């Protein structure tokens, strides 16, 4: 049996839409109906004709899809696929921070739990974080959970950004020294990195881009060789988009173990059994959804 065609056949029969983040395993990207960055996938989850969404990504993505499309069944093929950064914020700590800075608005990166989103004024993704912060009518912003994205946003605004000290272990693990090493091997290559990278890595990059903006960038650049400073799955997406460019992974360790949990076999089983369904408690969902919708309106 060709598992790819079988998954597609069952998905069509069940009117299921398969969404995959750009960091997913190559085969999953090839099977999915839509691949994209967090914003593109949230937009797609909010507006589509399917009866079921199968989310090949991590838990917070399926949770957001479930809130944006409450009448659809949203399935995560591996329920243990979480995001360690999302789990770095605790609700009590955020409530205390809000009390400390009552005049601040809370901007929360989409890589967060629904409960933390519910305590936030607005959500952002890496592709719209700067734009969202600039548009807000407040001089002080509590930014959760990513300290590196907060630092990156601070470069573009005079507003005071109060960062939560969370981080993505996959991006944090990549150091300036690693970048210097890979640049020595490929001195003429252009360097693109994700804003979840450390500030000293960002200082050395030619371009700082969300995964969706990386795709747009390779469609128009004249560069022949690019060092890619983000999760390894991105290389497959970039090769599919602009195959004439040579892509160099910034490090062999640029892997998100959670994104890699979803395999064609798990996707197949999850579509057949319609498991695991992701839902969000109503009270949390209503508040978190308004923060998500505020982002979609401003995007
Ligand atoms: P984007 O796809 O929005 O750039 O986000 C990257 C990420 O880390 C998702 O977990
Ligand atoms: Fe979370 Fe980092 Fe994995 Fe994205 S790459 S899902 S931020 S751990």
Care to give the gist of this entry?
The protein is α/β, with parallel strands linked by helices and 299 residues long. The chain contains 15 helices and 12 strands.
Describe this entry's structure for a reader.
The structure is a single chain. The chain has 299 residues and is of the alpha/beta class. The protein has 3 domains: 3-82 and 259-279, NadA-like (Rossmann fold, 3-Layer(aba) Sandwich); 86-167, Rossmann fold (3-Layer(aba) Sandwich); 170-249, NadA-like (Rossmann fold, 3-Layer(aba) Sandwich), CATH 3.40.50.10800. Helix content is 44%, strand content 16%. The chain has helices at residues 3-13, 26-31, 38-46, 59-68, 91-100, 114-118, 129-135, 147-154, 169-172, 176-185, 199-204, 211-220, 233-241, 264-273, 282-298, and strands at residues 16-21, 34-36, 52-56, 73-75, 105-109, 122-124, 140-144, 160-163, 190-193, 207-208, 225-229, 246-249. The protein has a 4-stranded parallel sheet with strand order 2-1-3-4, sandwiched between helices. Helix 13 (233-241) links the parallel strand 11 (225-229) and strand 12.
């Amino acid at each position: 049996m060709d598992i790819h065609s079988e998954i597609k056949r069952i998905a069509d029969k069940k009117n299921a839409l398969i969404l995959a983040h750009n960091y997913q395993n190559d085969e999953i990207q090839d099977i999915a109906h839509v691949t994209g960055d967090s914003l593109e996938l949230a937009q797609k989850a909010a507006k589509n004709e399917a009866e079921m969404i199968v989310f090949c990504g991590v838990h917070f993505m399926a949770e957001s899809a479930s809130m944006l499309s409450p009448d659809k069944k949203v399935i995560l093929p591996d329920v243990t696929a979480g995001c360690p950064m999302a789990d770095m914020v605790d609700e009590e700590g955020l409530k205390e921070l809000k009390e400390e800075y009552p005049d601040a608005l809370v901007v929360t990166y989409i890589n967060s739990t629904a409960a933390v989103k519910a305590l936030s004024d607005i959500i952002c993704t890496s592709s719209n974080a700067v734009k969202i912060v600039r548009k807000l009518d407040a001089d002080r912003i509590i930014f959760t959970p990513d300290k590196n994205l907060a630092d990156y946003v601070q470069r573009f605004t005079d507003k005071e950004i109060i960062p939560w000290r969370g981080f993505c272990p996959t991006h944090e693990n990549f150091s300036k020294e690693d970048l210097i090493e890979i640049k020595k091997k490929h001195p003429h290559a252009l360097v693109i990195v994700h804003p979840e990278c450390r500030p000293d890595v960002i200082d050395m990059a030619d371009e700082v881009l969300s995964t969706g903006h990386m795709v747009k960038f390779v469609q128009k650049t004249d560069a022949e060789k690019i060092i890619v400073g983000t999760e390894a799955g991105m290389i497959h997406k970039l090769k599919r988009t602009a195959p004439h460019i040579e892509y160099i992974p910034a490090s062999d360790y640029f892997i998100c173990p959670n994104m890699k949990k979803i395999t064609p076999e798990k996707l197949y089983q999850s579509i057949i059994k319609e498991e695991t369904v992701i839902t969000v408690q109503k009270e949390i969902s209503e508040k978190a959804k308004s923060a998500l919708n505020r982002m979609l309106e401003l995007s």
